[in-house]
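so my prof wants the structure for this chain in the tokens format not the other one, which i didnt know existed until like an hour ago. anyway here's the sequence
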Amino acid sequence: MVISLTPFRSLVLDHVEGGTRDTLSRFQGLFPLDQIGSEFMPPLYEGDLLYMPTTLPGVSVTKARQLLQQTDRIIRTFPEVQNVFGKMGRAETATDPAPLSMIETTITLKPQSQWREGMTPERLIDEMDAAIQFPGLTNAWTMPIKTRIDMLSTGIKTPVGIKVAGEDLQTLQAIGQRIEEVIRRVPGTLSVYAERVAGGNYLDFEVRRDEAARYGLTVGDVQDVIMSALGGMNITHTVEGRERYPVNLRYGRELRDNLPALRRVLVPTPGGAQIPIEQVADIHIRKGPAGLKSENARLNAWVYVDIKGVDVGSYVDQARKAVAVEVDLPPGYSLSWSGQYEYMQRAAARLKMVIPVTLGIIFLLLYMNFRSVTESLLIMLTLPFALVGGVWLLALLDYNMSIAVGVGFIALAGVAAETGVI
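here's what i got, hopefully its the right format
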């Protein structure tokens, strides 16, 4: 259990002057509580790495495949890497709603005995991150198992995430981009990416009914051509053993990869003539949502933040102050901090209940043993000294406060009470 001494020290400093104040200011650096960060759980090296970059929405399948192949080739050049397997887009399952703009690359590493001398996982990530720098590609490095658990729990794949909630997608995107600008300047930020929730590209065909009627066409006739020639239509299935695959028919890529080509798509008329589709429809490229995310019946835009060289608790404290000062939220919009920080908040609230209950149980057991309040309190007075020693040890080992450390302190209190009884 850690009790912050900051308010007490501030009270003392406010009542001293001159050199005495400076002396106390330097002296407070001796307290380890100011040097200990906080995190949900200590990082566990799983033996493999997961590279999850994010591109801007609207990236084509061809470009996404090219990026995937390029990043895989670069990662494979490192001698510590054994295998690289990248995936883009989603699988045919409802449990993996990954957009085409998110790449997932699993990196299988060789045993550390075969690594270069002096190489560590942290240094390897730094070298890979420096080697993979593409415009529009935001890098994120993590562990496979940890990332899956995080995404199943909160949806956030990075240690820190910000969820902006509101009603209008354009406003959510503007707020997310503003937060991205502010967070990028916070010390400890490795990468930050705000989802472009309204940045998808849509090809809209607006059928001019009067023009279509002149050629004896209905809206459905024009839409049938759009669906079959451009979108593609399944005309049959091929059976290969126990597997079945649809056969999709549409125009070749060279006939539909740009607006002039799309405008020349032919529409058959009842009279037998073939007319370009631009004579009966207007074609526009418009921006729209690449996907919709909602929580608590409100639309969401997420900001992914990867950090380096700083603990989660200290980083979020700095980032929250920066966002509160520089980002103005319109009425009806809110933001919440997620990722590991969300776990920390839940666990801290639970520990606030568990620790007093634990101390109460220890005191009750001591009283049942000694049948004396005085002797029980005397032993309870030894617990703070044991906890102070634990805090100093954390500071010397450069560990952060976490749930594991909190459970350790609870166990330490029990051992200290047992030693006091003896």
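also thought this was worth mentioning. The chain has 14 helices and 17 strands.
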